[in-house]
Fold this protein.
Amino acid sequence: MSRKPVGGPYITGTTILAALMVTIMAMLVLIRFFFGLGTVTNLNDGYSWGLWLAYDVVAGTAIGCGGYAIALVVYVLNKGHYHPLVRPAILASMFGYAIGGTSVLIDISRWWNFWHILWPTYFNLNSVMIEVALCISIYTTVLILEFAPAVVEKLAGWTRQRGGNLHALTITVQKVLDKAIFVLIALGMTLPTMHQSSLGTMLIPFGYSINPLWQTPILPALYLLTALSIGYAIVIFEATLVSDRFARPSEARILGLLSRYMTAVLALFLVVRFGDIVYRGAVHYAFTSGELSFAFLAENLLTLTGIAVLLSERRRMASRYQFIAAMCILSGCVLYRIDSYLVAYHRVGWRYFPSAPEILITFGMIAVEVLGYILIVRHFPVLQSVEQVNAPTLASE
Amino acid sequence: MSLTRRNFLRGTAAVGAACAVATVAKAEVREEKTLPPKAVGLLFDSTLCVGCKACVTACREANNTHPEFSGEDKLWDTPLDLSASTLTVIKAYSEGSAENKDQEKDGFAFIKKSCLHCVDPSCVSVCPVSAMTKDPVTGIVSYNPSNCIGCRYCVEACPFGVPRFEYNKTIARLRKCELCKQRQAAGKIPACAEVCPTGATLFGSETALRAEAERRHGLTPGEQAFFPRKTVGSTDTQEKKAPRYNGETYGLKEVGGTQVCYLAGVPFEKLGLPVLPEKSFVSTSEKIQHTLYKGMIAPALLFSSLLFVVRRHANHDEKEEE
């Protein structure tokens, strides 16, 4: 398979805007580190976890599950023709997780002790968070290694002209990575299965503080299923945007086929979720929880709309509807995660809405992802070469 | 490779299996935690409290916290709630004409808030880096700042909203009542119990305190009775008519029991003490986690089967490409 750097200018309107947002974020982050969390956030003792935790970490790492979701299809279900989607998905995942990890570092108040979560003598193995923290740290490393072949490939092209030992070394690294890649891929599916479900388990200690529409012992299963749904949705969302923005041929056909996995996983999520709500006798909360009832309704309307849009074969194969459905499902599932961590969490007498600097920092994080993605696909061989997109080998489908 | 019905079902089965793994933990309670052998605690009797807030001031001295002003003149220490600089606070319930002490209707009552030192504390269970610990002998729940990374999971998880964080400091810490363990080490009792003029806040061994609560429930309302001050069993007592208690003792069963228990004349919920199940929430999360990760068998199985499958398919994949 041939992948090529997209090329083109590094400085465009989009990259300038993104860089600007990253700069604003950097300044605000400095203020936070110098003067404490309270100076930039609205966090309080009633809502000690805010936007950064709920969006950047809990939703953000799920948005980083594109690599996980695609790997399942390509390597477990053995659908080789989705292979072109793997590398861009891994790149986006790498950013998603790196951003999640960085956000944690900004969010934790005593960041100089950060290394304690990696140092066994401090571990409390009863804490779900230690599993999540370790697992995410290792997975971020795995993602970087999974993406490394793209960098090494580029490097090899450069060292080839110079020859000598450096090139020999690069080739060796390339070979080692090639041999070890299956271990990384297997790890890359094991780890998200672990921590994405644990992100759900992390809410169980909150007990009655979370509305019964969200608080359930099957949270780990629900979180795993939303991670996958979001994973497929983000791959479709990103691939569609990339085709459009880089004026590349549409990948609508392959994405249409992929969308079936998204709707299948999402349908399973909805069945499990509603089944559980009925089983626990919590149905009435859907109508009696005030604004939370609306949040619940919004989540389900978004996800169901996404499924409905893709029911017809014609729409499923059309780029426009794929994009709409992916956005619906993405926002529905992200909303589910934000709701469970933030909106459905209630402490008598306390209120929380993120402050402007808090929101700007989150936007800055998203800008880092966008900027990084653009620069890397322009510079490194991530996306399939245009000729190959035009001649897809989907004959067997 | 075509997307046959069989393949699709196989895929769905794979996802299903993953979910099954995640739900094996059919949320049973893990072994229930019991009171430590020499558990100490407080018994707060709302019917004895006159709202003088001597405990709040004594707590400041003992724990080196700053007064909190809510008025313009900044002359009156009026903390509105627990905070990183208020480890105990007196709150008041008031209804209707508020004429009668300890009555729900047209009455008023006081409640002292501080850490309840749970038998099965959420903060200890959720802390990733063991900064929150429960003393195996006394049961005192303590905070060790040198371990703490400041994730504030304890703040979010405490069913009573007790741990409080310093949001406006660069070197921020968590603060909560540690039952004056530094004073206890010097042979003294917690400051709040020491200064309480009526014996509303009583210190002692948890078993003795629970027996005392039981004794009070056995009194006939209106009969003359003695109420010890400072510590349970103390000879320094107050003679007073026995009140009419509402309900049981709060803290015997709530989330697995607490070492700070409450007696009151008005319903506990009116005093901000939530109705909670007998099973602690963290017993469920721990059960799920320890089932899924028992000996790391499930993750190891998942990893090795993925290793097997991926190796086959990755090779296959390469051949297809070439």
Residues 59 and 185 of chain A are 22 Å apart (CA to CA). Confidence is low (pLDDT under 50) at residues 392-397 of chain A. Chain A touches chain B through 86 residues (CB under 8 Å).
